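quick one, 156 residues, struct below
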Amino acid sequence: MSHKIQLKINGIHYCEEVDSDLTLLRFIREKIGLTGTKCGCENGECGACTVIIDGHAVRSCIILAVEVSGSEIITVEGLASGEKLTPLQQAFIDEGAAQCGFCTPGILMGLQALLNEKENPGDDEVKQALGGHLCRCTGYNSISRAIDTVLSKSPK
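---
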């Protein structure tokens, strides 16, 4: 069975007919061609597919596209403003937090959702935002340094 959905992704409106079992991850990657959102475990455990839906970090592999019709979604491609990176993206580069890069989009989205919600989150909130994001390369030290860099520059 198919359904008509309407989504705003990275500021662009989409109105599409989709199968009722199509995940948001597959819609983003296969229907509109944004491949920054990664397909990892496809059961919500690795965090690679995290996007921001209506202000909240959500695993796009475990939510159906029809469930979020009418929502505003930001993918990793929607973080930067043209060539200008967000402070978080720049900190990831400066601190070497993106090694193989596979987990990076999901981690960026989870942390950015937190920063959008709270200007100066505490350590426990940062740890919670990183919870469920699996990274096999960095050991999380460079990721921690990147978020610390951003937080040290934010107003207290």
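The domain at 2-78 is CATH 3.10.20.30 (Ubiquitin-like (UB roll)).
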